[in-house]
Design brief:
transmembrane; elongated; membrane; FxsA family protein; single chain; transmembrane helix; 150 residues; 72% helix; mainly alpha
């Protein structure tokens, strides 16, 4: 599924770059791609530090930092899209770096994964921890995890 998307996006990028190059000139197009890369790098750095600060704050308050992790994933994917030359990937990458649109991407990720989990007759994500002490016969297993419900 990813390979056809990769091919289609690459062909669209080539078409858009050629069209913009024909309209404003080749040098101006390359300069515009470089400018968007610098703007994207600045936003990536700023939003990355902001997300790290949020994650550290939630960890220091003994809370789970799941939302900060998802924001980090969206920021990393947006950074990769910004490093890819082209106007379509730069636009999607810039939207991923803006906080209001990032929450939209995170909600879409959660919706898709929640449907997969709950349609398979599972009740949530479970992470089992292993104990360092030997197991006793009458001791019950402790299961730690997160649960969400729409």
């Amino acid at each position: 599924m990813i390979f056809p998307i990769f091919i289609v996006v690459t062909l669209l990028e080539i078409y858009v770059l050629a069209s913009v190059g024909a309209a404003i000139g080749g040098f101006s197009t390359v300069l515009l791609v470089i400018i968007t890369a610098f703007i994207g790098f600045f936003l990536l750095k700023q939003q990355g530090y902001s997300t790290i600060a949020k994650a550290q704050n939630t960890i220091s308050n003994s809370q789970t930092s799941t939302l900060a992790r998802l924001e980090g994933v969206v920021i990393v994917v947006s950074g990769v899209l910004l490093l890819t030359p082209g106007f379509i990937t730069d636009t999607i990458g810039l939207f991923g770096l803006l906080p209001f649109s990032r929450s939209y991407f995170i909600n879409r990720i959660l919706e898709k994964n929640a449907k997969k989990i709950f349609n398979n007759n599972h009740s949530g994500f479970i992470h089992k921890t292993q104990k360092t002490q030997p197991k006793q016969r009458n001791e019950k297993n402790t299961i730690e995890g997160e649960f969400w419900e729409d």
